[in-house]
Amino acid sequence: MPIRVKKLSPPRKVQRIEAGELGAHAELPPLSPTVFMVLIPPSTNSLFCNVPGVGRVKSREYRDWIKAATADLRLQRVRGTTPVPCQIQVIIRGGRGFPERRDCDNVLKPILDLLVSNGILVKDNVRYVNGVSVRYVPRDGNAAARCTVMVKGDGD
Questions:
Q1: Strand partners for 48
Q2: CA nearest 90: which of 141, 40, 142, 144?
Q3: Is 88 helix (H, G, I), strand (E, B) or coil?
Q4: What does the alpha-carbon distance between residue 117 and residue 139 come to, in Å, rounded to a whole number?
Q5: Per-residue model confidence (pLDDT) at position 1
Q6: What is the pTM of this model?
Q7: How far is the C-alpha of 129 from the C-alpha of 83, rounded, in Å?
Q8: How far apart are CA 36 and CA 78, in angstroms?
Q9: What domains, with CATH codes, occur in the chain?
Q10: Could you say which DSSP state residue 20 is in?
Q11: Under-50 pLDDT residues of the chain
Q12: Residue 150 contacts residue 38 (beta carbons within 8 Å)
C-alpha cells in the first residue's frame, strides 16, 4: 500500500494573535514604530449623512478620502502591525485644506478607522490603543495640509 504524503501549505507571512490567546500575564512582542503621511481627512462632523429609507451612510467626501488615503498607504508600503497596546500620534501640518478655525481633534476618528480598515491596527478600542494625541503645526507656505501619523508600542 503506497504511503500518502500530505502537502503542506506555506506559512502565512503575518499571523495575528489575539491578546486573550496568550493568557492573562503573557506579554505581546513590541511594536516597531510605523510612520506615514495621509491627506487631511474630512471633519468627524461630515463623515456620515442621512439617506431617507436607508439611514446613516458614509458621505461622498469621506468615501473619496478613504480611497485616496488607502492609496497613500500602499504607495508608502505601510504594513500591518502586531496587535499590542499602542499609542497613535497625529501631527497636522497646516496648509490648504485645513482652515485654522477647524478643531484638530476631528481628524482622529477617520484616521483610526483607516488604520483598522487597512490592517495597521487590529481594532481601535482601548485593548489595542491606549493613547492618542494630535498636534497642530502652523502652515509652511502654500502647501496642502497633511497628517503625519505614528503608531508606536508602549515600549518604544
A1: 58
A2: 40
A3: strand
A4: 29
A5: 54
A6: 0.74
A7: 9
A8: 7
A9: 19-153 (3.30.1330.70)
A10: G
A11: 5-31
A12: no
